[in-house]
Each structure stands twice: as C-alpha cells, then as structure tokens.
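Encode chain A's predicted structure.
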Amino acid sequence: MTLTMTVTESAAERLLAITAEHGITEEQGLRLFTRGGGCACSGPSFGMAIDNAESGDSVFTLSGIRFIVDDVSADSLEGASIDWVDDVMRSGFTIEAPNAQTGGGCGCGGH
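Encoded structure for chain A:
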C-alpha cells in the first residue's frame, strides 16, 4: 500500500539533514507511527524514528525521504501532511492527519 501524504519543503529539508546526520543505510527509512498516550478524545499522536522495514510495512519515497509505515498506522496517516515549525512558541515537526479517528468517548474525565 502506498500512502498519499505531503511533506512541506521546510520539513523535507530538515528530515534530509537529520537522515544524513545519522548516516542511515539504504535498508533504513523514517518510520511514521501512531502511539498511545494522552486523552482518547484527542485522537492518536504520531512519532517518527529511523528504522528498518518489516514484513507488511508500506515503504515509499516522498521528497527524497524513504518512509516506512506499519499497517496499523497506515489508515490514520493516509492524507497526512508533515511540516517543520520553527517560531517563537515551538520548534519541531507537526503531522496533520485528517483521517485520524478520535477515540469516541473521552477517558480523561471530559464529556
């Protein structure tokens, strides 16, 4: 499965610099994944790590970066946009994923 995603120019530049700095091999790529934690009503949060592809992973190249996504995270990341933000308030990657589902009910005391 190949995902439809976008990477902004600023995010691509930063990701290429990071992968070059870490000297990743041809077999490795940037794994995008959903992770638990936080309030279920806010939907999944996402993480990134340099990793090797495993059986069942989607592997594709976008903006010169090799991405790896597991089948559990793929639905949430379909249509996602990755950006690099560097302003007075924060600095880091943001992943906007319109297909990420919220958990339905809030498990943190909200209604």
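The chain is about 20% helix and 35% strand.
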